[in-house]
Design brief:
- It is a single chain.
- The chain has 15 helices and 31 strands.
- It is α+β, with helices and mostly antiparallel strands.
- The strands form seven sheets. The chain has a seven-stranded mixed beta sheet, with no helix packed on it. It has a five-stranded antiparallel beta sheet with strand order 12-13-19-15-16, with no helix packed on it. It has a five-stranded mixed beta sheet with strand order 20-21-22-24-23.
- The longest helix is centred in the middle third of the chain and has 20 residues.
- 42% of the residues are buried.
């Protein structure tokens, strides 16, 4: 296949001019018409130069576009440390897509930074195995070769890796911009899943990324490598390493930026919109022959996405062939060829909007984009690609809460950006099915945390320590470990969704509803009106919430947000009920002393409840790490049980502790 054929499914789609001397590619329909007119000269063509293959080295020969094969011994010498030694801090992409043959040709200017502790003389870049490197240039001399490496970071189960050898090393912390060209095809593939025994229908449902005449839908690292990355091989059968690597790459590249100039050749109906990382740009169209019937017309569609921070995500690209339609309530922008599918989703958004308005503000920041897309759902903030197959709003209302919350609230901090929608989902359950059902969902959400959260630093401290009544035995003198899974440096979904929602529920139990509502709305507006280039202060939400609640929350944020000190580990050490004689016309009452131990490494303010039937009396008790605290609760009536924690404090074990009291009608003293 010659070089120009990579850019076109058919020579009649659009005039393409590949000048091997300059490496320029011109795409323009007006140039075709002009060329057919008498007296037209080549100098009169007003084609648009999409990119030059030899921008950096115009005298480079065409043969240098063919990457040499890396010797096997050299491939074997590449270490995972080398593959992890650089971070890409900027992508500047020119993509040319030919859906008719699943084709992609790209010029990618990538800026890499040495994040290792040693100078680098060679580095690696990877693409999907169906793409191939044509050239790599930089301001300094270099050579490169390519080879294939097995990995499940791409749907084909392999990646094409370029080994770049530099003429002089890049020092730690230094950056280098590389200009690369690559091309190939991106057809649907489920090879990595069928290879490990996944049923074919499930594999196709999960791995749907492709460029095709029917759709262009590309996720990113972990699904299909349509842009350059640098990563060691990762495999689905190797525990959770692939998913952890995806999260780490999102965190590492959150401050990176991406620019995209997109060109799509089409036949028939032109594509309508392009979505890069959830951002929509309408496609401009140039038809080769405007008077040709649409079904057989050829043309080019283009879009230009300005440079923007990537945020906590993997890059994604979707191209749609039909216009989006606003829902009647203007909360949704839906792209589907089945207008009748919109009704259940519109009704579901009506159901959840009151809770969102109550907690997050009167109006959303944007509409929620829904793309009718077969296969496993994909979400990127207020962008959701999902099969629109529901026939009843009740089928999708629970999921709609989370997705629509992204249209109401945004933050560059993952624990707030994902935790708030998860928290609002619990609030919606509480509003429709009651508090107990919401607490059940919260406990189910927290359960996976008990498997991954670190234990306290002093296992021996898990045995109860006695204390005098109404006093603390004192916190452990050992400093709890601080892990890289603190909520402000989080990369694992179980933390930035489950733990974040649990912490917000915990804050609600401390501050009350009104202050937390006010803080969420004020913080939303503060983030929205901030300068685009201003990093979000990870301590700002604490400041806003403290001002709204008029409380010092520094201990809570220090233990639960800024550090990862695990979960609470509570137990009832002793319960001592004592009856008080009737006096002043009142019947017998009870003074119940409850001693609670916290074997965890976090401070907690836990609710302690004395109950008799529907009669309850609750006090919140502060318990430092590795300490026991006693409290006394005066109770009118005969107590039947004592409960510590109501599920609002995340724990390593059961989040509710109950001690039954068998007091009868007689006076009882002593520990139970």
């Amino acid at each position: 296949m010659n070089r120009s054929s990579r850019f076109s499914a058919s020579s009649c789609v659009v005039t393409q001019f590949l000048n091997l001397a300059t490496g320029a590619i011109l795409l323009t329909a007006p140039a075709v018409v002009a060329a057919q007119q008498p007296g037209h000269s080549e100098s009169q063509s007003q084609g648009q130069v999409l990119f030059h293959r030899n921008d950096e080295q115009p005298n480079q020969s065409p043969s240098s576009h063919r990457a040499a094969r890396t010797p096997e011994k050299v491939v074997a010498s590449i270490t995972d440390a080398e593959r992890s030694s650089v971070a890409i801090i900027q992508w500047d992409l020119d993509l040319h897509l030919t859906p008719a043959n699943s084709g992609m040709a790209a010029k990618a200017r990538v800026t890499i930074r040495n994040i290792s502790s040693a100078p680098l003389t060679r580095l690696t870049l990877q693409l999907s195995s169906t793409l191939h490197w044509e050239s790599i240039n930089a301001p300094l001399p270099l050579t490169f070769t390519e080879h294939t490496v097995a990995t499940d970071a791409d749907h084909t189960g392999q990646m094409t890796e370029a080994l770049v050898t530099l003429s002089r090393p890049i020092s730690p912390g230094s950056s280098l911009t590389l200009t690369t060209f690559y091309s190939g095809t991106l057809a649907a593939s489920s090879a990595r899943l069928t290879r490990i025994g996944a049923p074919p229908d499930q594999a196709v449902y999960a791995d749907w990324d492709q460029i095709s005449p029917e759709e262009t839908a590309l996720r990113g690292f972990g699904n299909v490598l349509w842009y350059p990355v640098s990563s060691p091989p990762l495999f689905l059968g190797d525990g959770a390493k692939l998913f952890q690597a995806i999260g780490l790459s999102r965190l590492q590249q959150a401050r990176s930026s991406m620019r995209l100039r997109l060109t799509v050749e089409y036949v028939g109906e032109p594509p309508v919109d392009a979505f890069l990382n959830g951002r929509r740009e309408p496609l401009d169209h140039v038809a080769e022959q405007p008077d040709t019937p649409v079904v057989s017309s050829h043309g080019v569609a283009t879009a230009d996405f300005a440079n923007a921070p990537l945020g906590f995500r993997t890059p994604s690209l979707f191209i749609t062939s039909s216009a989006s339609r606003p829902s009647e309530n203007q909360l949704l922008a839906i792209t589907t060829i089945h207008p009748e599918a919109m009704a259940p989703y519109t009704a579901a958004s009506n159901n959840v909007a009151p809770v969102l308005r109550d907690w997050l503000g009167d109006a959303p920041l944007s509409s929620l984009t829904l793309i009718d897309h077969a296969g496993q759902p994909f979400e990127d903030d207020a962008f959701l690609a999902v099969p629109l197959t529901a026939t009843d709003a009740r089928q999708v209302t629970p999921a709609m809460v989370h997705s629509l919350a992204h249209a109401w609230f945004r933050s560059s901090l993952p624990w707030l950006n994902e935790g708030v929608p998860q928290f609002v989902s619990l609030l919606y359950t509480e509003s429709t099915d009651g508090r107990e059902k919401a607490l059940v969902e919260l406990r189910q959400l927290i359960n996976p945390l008990t498997l991954v959260e670190p234990e306290g630093p002093d296992p021996s401290a898990r045995s109860p320590q006695s204390s005098t009544e109404s006093s603390s035995a004192g916190p452990s003198t050992q400093t709890p470990p601080v892990s890289d899974q603190s909520l402000i440096a989080v990369h694992d979904e179980v933390y930035y969704r489950a733990k974040a929602a649990a912490v917000l529920w915990l804050l609600r139990s401390i501050t009350g509803d009104a202050p937390l509502k006010k803080a969420l709305q004020l913080y939303r507006d503060e983030v929205r009106h901030a300068q685009p280039d201003t990093p979000e202060d990870p301590h700002a939400f604490q400041r806003v919430l403290e001002a709204a609640a008029h409380k010092d929350l520094s201990t809570v944020f220090d233990d639960w947000v800024y550090n990862d000190r695990g979960l609470a580990d509570l137990s009832i050490v002793n319960v001592t009920p004592r009856d008080l004689p009737a006096r002043n016309g009142k019947g017998v009452s009870w003074l119940v002393a409850v001693e609670v131990h916290n074997a965890g490494a976090v401070n907690v303010d836990v609710p302690v409840t004395v109950r008799s039937g529907s009669l309850t009396s609750t006090e919140r008790v502060h318990i430092p790490p590795h300490s026991s605290v006693s409290t006394r609760i005066l109770f009118e009536g005969t107590p039947q049980e004592v409960q510590v924690n109501d599920g609002t404090i995340p724990e390593t074990t059961a989040p509710i502790h109950i001690r039954k009291l068998n007091l009868g009608s007689s006076s009882t003293q002593g520990g139970i």
